[in-house]
Amino acid sequence: MSVYSIECKCGKCYVGSTRRKLPMRANEHRSEFVNPNRKSFYSPVYTHFRECGLEQKDMKLSLLHSVIESENIKKKESEWIATLGELNQYDAVPNFGKYLARRDRAKIKGQVIHECECGGTWSHNHHARHKRSLKHTKFIKNKILVNNINGEEEKSN
Question: Cys-Cys with 152: which of 35, 95, 144, 147 at CB 3.0–4.6 Å?
């Protein structure tokens, strides 16, 4: 798990996080940057990169922080976005505050908030709904595709 940045030619940065290996996430960013069939191709971040003249080969991810199991990856990402993330679409600090408030409400109700590999969260009552969510299904499809490309056996979640 790691928090990374992508620096534009103009000096502005995008900050992201991943639970997967950094080179795999870097390849996804490069693909999203040049493939107009990808929904994220039209995002403000990639649009800014193209307008500044950044090329696919120049897009490099820099490791900002390696997150260990006991640390919260969302908290670290929000701290780095507040520091460097000029190109991020949302202000992560208030969003992290909402996440903590939701987690605290769940604790009061006696629920446990689980974190998924895809980066999403779910409580016991909403596990099935999370599995059907767009974020989780995209993650699973991508994981199966990567496993098929690498010749690994298909694993289901």
Answer: 147
Q: Are 123 and 106 in contact (CB under 8 A)?
A: yes
Q: pLDDT of 42-93, one tens digit each?
A: 888 888 888 888 888 888 888 988 888 766 787 888 888 888 888 887 666 6
Instruction: Give the amino acid at 21.
Output: K
Can you tell me the distance from the alpha carbon of 56 to that of 23, in angstroms, rounded to the nearest whole number? 14
- Can you point out the beta strands (E) in 20-123? 61-66, 113-115, 121-123
Residues 29, 74 contacting (CB under 8 angstroms): no
pLDDT bucket at 17, cuts 50 / 70 / 90: confident
Pair 5, 83: CB distance under 8 Å: no
Domain spans of the chain, in order of start: 2-89
